[in-house]
Amino acid sequence: MKIGIVSDTHGSYKEVASSLLENNVDVIIHLGDYSDDGKDIGEITNKPIYVVRGNNDYVATDEPSELLINIGGIDFFITHGHKYNVYSGLTNLMFRAKAAGAQVVLFGHTHVYLKEVSDNILFLNPGSPSYPRFNDKKGYVIFDTETLKTNRIYMEDK
Predict the structure, then answer these.
(1) Per-residue pLDDT tens for 77-133?
(2) Distance CA 22, CA 111 (A)
């Protein structure tokens, strides 16, 4: 199963939705900051979508700030990341992931791609498809639950 993992769209979601469709993802996860974009992506693609709230989701939203879900037999802990001080490292996320029994942690907030395995837990930040920081490129990630491989998809400047 192919999972499209997106974060920090900040209102720029139409190109991402098109790219997710082109890449035949089965499920989409939006990691917040404009969680309404995640809902719109779900409507455009007509794919199942999981959405969490980020620090810039000011409007009243019923989206949770974190989720623990199982897709394809893999336990994912999903959060935006701001409540875990991710700019200072992954320690807080590590403790939460272990407590939740997660195999994969998905987070955003920094707008910078990161893929790191620590203590047998995969930490994955897809970066931002609209406003990358610190010389990162615009993009998102596809995670294949069958092969356990990730593929970073770069968004071309239009």
Answers:
(1) 999 999 999 999 999 999 999 999 999 999 999 999 999 999 999 999 999 999 999
(2) 23
Between 35-45 and 14-22, two packed helices, what is the crossing angle to 10 degrees? 40
Residue 115 carries which side chain, given as an amino acid letter? K
* Angstrom distance (rounded) from CA 15 to CA 113: 19
Measured between alpha carbons, how far is 29 from 70 in angstroms, rounded to an integer?
A: 12
42 SS3 class? helix
Q: What is the mean pLDDT of residues 31-53?
A: 93
CA 130 – CA 16 distance, rounded (Å): 9
- What's the DSSP call for residue 53? -
Do 116 and 91 contact (CB within 8 A), yes or no? no
Please report which helix (H) or strand (E) contains residue 38, including its range: helix 35-45
Cβ atoms within 10 Å of 96's Cβ, excluding its own: 17
How far does the chain reach from its first CA to its final CA, in angstroms?
29
Residue 134: Cβ within 10 Å count: 8
In sequence order, what DSSP letters do the residues of 82-113 get, joined into one string? Answer: GGGTGGG-SHHHHHHHHHHT-SEEE--SS-SE
